[in-house]
Amino acid sequence: MPAKAPIKKSPAKAAPSKPQPAPEPVKEAPAPEAPAPAPEVPAAAPAPEAAAPAPAPEAPAPEAPAPAPEAAAPAEEAPAPVVEAEKPVETPKAPEPEPPKEEPPSAPRDLAVDDVNDTTLAVKWKVSENEGTAALEGYLVEYKKENSNEWVSVNKEPSVSARYKIENLTTGDKISVRVKASSKAGVSAPVELENFVQIREIVDRPKIRLPRYLRQTYIKHVGDQVNLVIPFQGKPKPQAIWTKDGKPLDPKQAGVRTSDSDSILFIRKAERKDSGVYELVIKIDTLEDKAKIEIKIAERPGPPKSIKLVDVWGFNAALEWTPPGDDGNADITGYTVQKSDKKTGEWFTVHEHHHQTNCTISDLIIGNSYYFRVFSENLVGLSDKATVTKGVAVIKKTGSSYIAPVYKERELTEPPKFTQALSDRTTTKGYSTKLFCCVRGSPKPKVVWMKNQMLLGEDPKYRCLVNHGVCTLEIRKPSPFDGGVYSCKAINPLGEAVVDCRLDVKVPQ
To answer: Which GO terms describe its biological process (predicted)?
Structure first.
């Protein structure tokens, strides 16, 4: 049955000589895409489907298999190739992927010298940007001498740190260093120092450590000893150069002693000419550090040039003077003014640390005559001498007279009057007690004490006192019998006054 399907007439008849070769490309083209539907489709039908994958020259081939009825016989034999197309076509196996190639890390970056001295050289670098296909194990360090092509390995095991110190080198040698990154995938390209490095003692930059007290003007007295110790640092031992006011220091004027860590300026006996600006320069090759020290050698100033008594009035005298010609190589800080009575000749200080060149002296005694003198003062002290006034300041008596005022006598007499009355009291048997009151009067009143309107008299149990108007009655070790009303009476020629109180004496239970 399937063989008869292609017998149907085709609308376009092709030449009968070309229907046989057309089925061959049909067998090959549809097989890999859809082998199953091939038997149900006429031989002419699959040709257009196969035209797509077929090359351009073979595209018209599918239209040719529309044979005339005479081609029915060969079409019946077509099932043989169709059966073969139903079999799965074996596809070629894809080649197995090759294992990835191992990639070593990239080279370290920015190799530079970190430190150098007479036996060691320390280098540092930045880590590799790319670690490669395996984890980075570390870095390998090598060096070579200037006139050699042989690289000497420094570390057998890779260094994890990005800094390495090469030790036991020979002083004076010039070496170059290179570094490689290492991993299981391999070793990177090396990074090398640009220039050879000489193994030598590193220069510690010279630096002066000027003490704080020398950062301001250093002042000494004439005749004192000057001993300045200036510490510094530097390696190798720096050269110390002292100058004064920009000129080389005279060894006869000052001594200098320099060690590995300090320089000492020594003046055995200072003079004023030793004052000036001293400069210390510490040098190592082209490196240097400077420090300036201002030294001032001072002494006591001279006295003021002159002094003048300007005016005298009442109890006062006015003075003026001029600054000293010699300030002792230090600023004048003040003046001390003293006075002396012509009768006694003793000097007394009137003003100290006086900053002006004039002053007024007050509180002088009428009828006396005075001399005055002035001392100059600087940071060392007062001048040895003073400038004394030539004239004498005489404090004259005035012609005024004193008239004593007349006062009207006041009447001060008054009768007795109690300013504080007696107060009732309660006491305990056997404990002494006192009664108080205050009285005034002129003339002074007489005071008497009474108990229950009876005068106490000379009874030794009672003691009566009057002090500046305060009246006191002391009752020694009272008993219940001593309780009652006590009265105090004050009497003078102008009258009398009485106050009283009650005293209770309790017996303890």
So the answer is: cell adhesion
Distances (CA, A) of 80 to 19, 75, 83: 17, 10, 5
Q: Are residues 237 and 268 in the same domain?
A: yes
Q: State the pTM of this model.
A: 0.40
40 near 2, Cβ under 8 Å? yes
**Cα–Cα distance for residue pair 435/486, rounded to 1 Å:** 9
User: What CATH number corresponds to the domain at position 324?
Assistant: 2.60.40.10
Question: What does the alpha-carbon distance between residue 234 and residue 297 come to, in Å, rounded to a whole number?
Answer: 32
Judge if 163 and 178 occupy the same domain: yes
Same domain, 193 and 210: no
Per-residue pLDDT of 249-276, as tens digits, reads 888 889 999 998 999 999 999 999 999 9
Structural domains of the chain, count = 5
Domain containing residue 233: 205-298
Contact 176, 153 (CB under 8 A): no
Instruction: Kindly report, residue by residue over 173-204, the tens digit of the pLDDT.
Output: 889 999 999 988 888 999 999 888 888 776 67
Say if residues 134 and 102 touch (Cβ distance below 8 Å): yes
User: Which residue, among 494, 485, 490, 484, has the nearest Cα to 470 in the 3D structure?
Assistant: 490
With respect to residue 72, please indicate whether it lies within any of the assigned structural domains. yes
Q: How far is CA 75 from CA 60, 61, 68, 283, in A?
A: 20, 16, 11, 115
Q: State CA 257 to chain mean position distance.
A: 37
DSSP characters for 206-259?
Answer: EEE---GGGSS-EEEETT--EEEEEEEEEESPPEEEEEETTEEPPTTT-EEEE-
**Judging by DSSP bridges, how do beta strands 276-284 and 239-244 pair with one another?**
antiparallel
